[in-house]
Amino acid sequence: MHAQYGKNCEIRQFKLNAFNPGIEYEMALGVNSTLDFRVAYQAALEPASSKPLEDFDFFPAITVQNRYYHNLNSRERRRRSIYGNSGNYVAPTVAIFSPGDRVVEGRLVDGIHGYGGLVYGVQRSYDSGFSFSIDAGAGYYVGPFKGTIQPVVNLSIGWIISEKRWCVGL
Question: What is the pLDDT of residues 53-108, one digit of tens each?
Fold first, then answer.
């Protein structure tokens, strides 16, 4: 009989994001699961546009993901680093954007908008503290426009500024 001691995921880590300026906090929920909070000035599509895939802007945003890292054990068995939750994940994701009043295609759009969806992602962190993650999927966008399903892509490039390590394998 084998016993699991500790967790594969970092207990907690704070990151500063450079690409989408902001801060991110990731905390362990289980052996291979984390809850990730990001507050940033984030690149996003403009869902109030008639061509949202062609209309991008930066909006203040809060994003929450419940990440399940499915390959941490296999990465560790192959002697690959799992530091900083370096692994591949599946995550339900929710984001709220607060862009304020803006003019889109000649009409005034105000209020917040957001999405809920599912993404697949990759995160890698290095001993220097450099970290990046990218995930993509689909989400249902809601707000002061007709709700619709659109692509979701998140990119974080930055540095781990504080962590509580607890990377213990099987």
Answer: 777 788 899 999 999 999 988 888 898 888 888 999 999 999 999 887 788 888 88
Q: 61, 74 in Cβ contact below 8 A?
A: no
Which tokens is 35 given? Answer: 């809850």
Name the residue with higher pLDDT: 132 or 7: 132
Task: Encode 107-153 in three state secondary structure.
Answer: EEECCCEEEEEEEEEEEEECCCCEEEEEEEEEEEEEECEEEEEEEEE
Three-class DSSP category at 32 = coil
Would you call 75 helix, strand, or coil by DSSP? helix
**Helix/strand/coil (H/E/C) assignment for every residue in 77-95:** HCCCCCCCCCEEEEEEEEE
CA distance 130 to 17: 10
Rounded Cα distance, 98 and 21, in Å:
15
